[in-house]
Specification:
CATH architecture of one domain in chain B: 2-Layer Sandwich
Strand content of chain B: 15-25%
Number of helices of chain A: 16
Structural class of chain A: alpha+beta
CATH superfamily of the largest domain in chain A: Aldehyde oxidase/xanthine dehydrogenase, molybdopterin binding domain
Shape of chain B: globular
Oligomer: heterodimer
Radius of gyration of chain A: 27 Å
Number of helices of chain B: 13
Helix content of chain A: 10-25%
Distance between the termini of chain A: 58 Å
Radius of gyration of chain B: 19 Å
Strand order of the largest sheet of chain B: 4-5-8-6-7
Helix content of chain B: 25-40%
Strand order of the largest sheet of chain A: 3-7-1-15-12-13-14
CATH class of the largest domain in chain A: Alpha Beta
Structural class of chain B: alpha+beta
Bound molecules: flavin-adenine dinucleotide, iron/sulfur cluster
CATH class of one domain in chain B: Alpha Beta
Number of domains of chain A: 3
CATH superfamily of one domain in chain B: CO dehydrogenase flavoprotein, C-terminal domain
Number of strands of chain B: 12
Strand content of chain A: 15-25%
Chain lengths: ~775, ~325
Amino acid sequence: MTVHDMKHAASDSARLEAVGGRLSRVDGPAKITGAAKYAVEQRLEGLTHAVLVGATIAAGKVIGIDARAAETAPGVLAVLTPDTIMELKGASDWLGNPPAQPTYAPLVRDVTFSGQHIAAVVAETFEQAVAAAALVKVWYDEMPAIVDLSDGKAGDGIPIDAMTKEWGDAEAAFAEAPVRICAAYNTPREFQAAMEPHGLIARWQGDELTIWEPSQWLDGMARTYAEWFGVPFENVRLVSPYVGGGFGSKALALAHSAVAAAAARMLDRPVKLVLNRPQNFTSYGGRAATRQTVAIGADRDGRIQSIVHRGVNETAVDGMWVEPLGSVTSIMYATQNFSSRQNVVRVNTVVPGAKRAPGENPSAFGIECAIDELAYELGIDPLEMRLINYAEQDPHAKKAWSTRQLREAFAAGAEAFGWAKRSPEPRSMRDGHQLIGWGVAAGTYPVRRAHGEAVVKILADGSVVVESSSIDMGQGTYTILAQTAAETLGVPVERVSVKLGDSHFARAGVTGGSRLAGVMTGAVYKAAGQALDELIGLALSDPRSPFQKLQANTLQVRDGRIASPRGEGPELSIAELMSAVGRDRIEAKGDTLPASTTAEERYKNYTTIAKSIPHTEGDYSRYSWCAHFVEVRVDEDFGTVRVSRVVSALDSGRLYNPKLAESQWKGGIIMGIGQALLEEGIVDRRHGRIVNGNFADYMLPTNADIPDIQTISVGIPDPHSSALGGKGVGELAIVGIAPAIANAVFHATGKRVRDLPITLEKLI
Amino acid sequence: MRDFSYLRAGNIEAARNAAALPGAMLLAGGTTLIDLAKCGVAEPSTVIDISHIEGLNAIDVTADRAVIGALARMSHVADNPQVKNLFPAVSEALWQAASAQLRNMATIGGNLMQRTRCPYFRDPQNFPACNKRAPGSGCSAIGGVTRGHAVLGTSEACIATYPGDLAIALVAFDAEVDLGERKLKVEDFFLAPGATAEQEHDIRPGEVITAIEIPGSAAARRSTYVKVRDRQSYEFAAASAAVGLELEGDGRTVRDIRVAFGGVATKPWRARAVEEALKGQMLDEETVRKASELAMEGAVDHGANHYKIALAPRVVVRAILKLGETA
Ligand SMILES: Cc1cc2nc3c(=O)[nH]c(=O)nc-3n(C[C@H](O)[C@H](O)[C@H](O)COP(=O)(O)OP(=O)(O)OC[C@H]3O[C@@H](n4cnc5c(N)ncnc54)[C@H](O)[C@@H]3O)c2cc1C
Ligand code: SF4
């Protein structure tokens, strides 16, 4: 598609069902009425229930398990322990690296974190399994645990050289800069806290495994199961029709998944295993706790001369997670001298994982607070400060931005917010007991790209079916793929049904990194285009077609009806044509891969992320951008912070559906409010255990905490980022909200809180 | 499976008889009981469903007194026009408690009887030591995560906060709890832990709360409940205060004042020292601030809950000044 075509398509967006139209979520009614059946809601004949037993220590060895009472409890079919669970093979990781160990043990004897799975009880009913699990006795030889980054035993950690980014002579330039600030910024362990818990149903039929499990990556997870059990990839079918929130946590098959699938194999019965809420805080990792120091040297006009950045994130004793803390630091502002280095520190936790904008989110907290501190140091308006140091090209990759509407975002946001009316002094705005503060911060997220394939079928009745193994976790895949197919084929959107969440459909890579919309609209666009070509070809050339004698060289489809472009000759519905030519379907499979791609490469592309395309590939650096403007009210006596206004201007490129994009942005902003003010996994230091692992104690924002949020799209189609011109939507908006709030709190109170969350005792 | 018998009580006598059985527990709205059963804290052998007993949900309010049936829903009481008018602190305490869904299910009797939110209390599997659950086993909270724990009324055995909101307003206005044979001041009904953390209420086997009674007063008519918490809704108090105020004819001198704290003590905490210091005084900010500090005499913190000592008096000040302004 040329840029010209894209502009045309974008201006067509007044039509609801076209790409760019504000079509409501097509899966909405099923969800609202409860008709939508989620993965673990399947009712299977002979279903059994598994419940996990977790370690009550954070480090040490299991020296004994007494399962006798559990085994003889009513309804119990099996108690799996490290000794009795079947042996699984090691699986390659998500990058496609071969397994480090030949075997994989999802139930452990060597405990490295509290809550780690030690045993599982399988029973006829869920209640029986719960009761029996409580009867399993475990003896430990406990060892001292490293609780978190501040633990005396934690040390400095392991340097991650791949994270080092350096140019110029940052330390020297910082030392010589006339104005310097240097501060430390910390973010706590946070959790994805999806409403739908993790869990699965596993069923074996011979050597064929079907797994019903909420998933952000069917093909990747199916590969893992296949490798664990040594069966061909094709033998594993993953079904994930709806996903009740993932936020990065549902892309991998996890230890509890392996336990359920192994139990099903051992018992030859289908097994259902759903993590209870506390287990959802210990069975997979949330966002790693991070620490950063940011030093900025500038001249007296506010021009940055050097940035020196050091970061640390926690990881697990037996697993590696790197949260790239220099990701935003290195690209947001122009500087001649830059240095970023990062270590990871092993602590006794489950391996941390991806949570919405991993890396960019904490990274922005550091740099966007630091630049604010510099602005106050110099007496320069924080917005002006950001414009003075605007990066005209990618300072790290030294490449042109594909598109960067950040200046436009600052302008549009400031205008809508009324930033010009801000009184610069901290503590200078109040309403009764409420100190009022205004803050600004920018955010960004790279355009991650990959490949996908889709099948588009035109059926005898003229309806259209789109199939893909990609998923919809609320972000709107069902809807935008229907829009893409409807627009490409020229049929009304109600005639398109989209089928997702089955690994036997056409393949897709991971739904993460805000890449899916760009990838899948591209694949559907291609498949639908092929189907349309075949349809028109049939109409023009099939002897039974009424169009055959027209001798036209093309035809047009509009509203599901076929005619020549100039309107002469017959006009038929698609169904009429299909019947005339005696076809019951037209089916096309389209993908975005080069035609030369081998089968092996294709497999790798969908089942690992090794084939992701770098966002700085070729001549351009591709990012989405945003600017957040926030008003807070801080009670001067109580220290409570409430966000009273948010205006965000965002550049996600072209929007395939603005209504859904706004909803994603708002979701990100709301999550960011939680991160800034509420969320924190609190660890009992003596036991190395999260004590607030439930939804009453792990604070997430309620409706009452969320003000009106205004979002403004400032994006333009970006032809270098995706086939239809979109960049990323899902993760962008959470980047920069926490620093905008922290900056507003400083403006309100004169107190700089550099540790999230900003709870009342830090301000009292 | 953890079996238990389920009895549906048709009337209050049946409920009392059944409640005398060992291991019996009453079920009203179920929002506390079912929660505690799920985390393994409550293990009733018999569950006595009292939610179908007729006549126990009446709300009868006159200027003299409010009589609120034990089965009245939190949302109904909060929304009752007479309660709002004559006992605003009661209505406000209820509105700011829990969530709309919980308030629609939960009853007044169950609300008084809700258990502490101490995370160690609620996780027997990982933290066996808890004197409230298992007398003599120790206290896991002391030396652990204590941000929500009490600073008043604590003992070496237990530092758990009483979490409810309604009871704070009730102790401020000398309400009584009706147990059928006995009536007790709400203030005496709740017990500080001392050496017996497991005993939270003065209630005997076979006793059922049938109603609460709140005497009407000028202070109750001019009252408010101020609740401070990390988020705006659906959270227990970091510190809260129920305050009632009666002024002399001059509109400035305090004739009667009631002050009670929530979120900072092991039981609903009446702050008589603050009341005494303010009676007969002119209502100005300085005086109110000084007097409010008295409430924290003898407060003991456990590190992370230290902020409550500074916060709680400020909540009282805000509440008193708010009432003063509405003169
Ligand atoms: C997530 C969450 C947040 C909450 N937030 C708040 C809050 O902010 N503020 C607040 O005040 N509360 C809060 N609550 C507590 C809530 O108000 C109580 O759960 C509720 O009031 C209990 O009433 P119920 O009728 O459901 O009690 P049930 O669960 O039915 O019973 C609770 C207990 O009381 C006993 N009982 C019930 N009725 C009687 C009776 N008539 N006589 C003697 N004993 C009886 C039962 O045996 C049981 O032990 C919250 C609860 C949850 C789950
Ligand atoms: S504070 Fe009380 S409830 Fe909490 S662990 Fe200690 S004894 Fe148990």
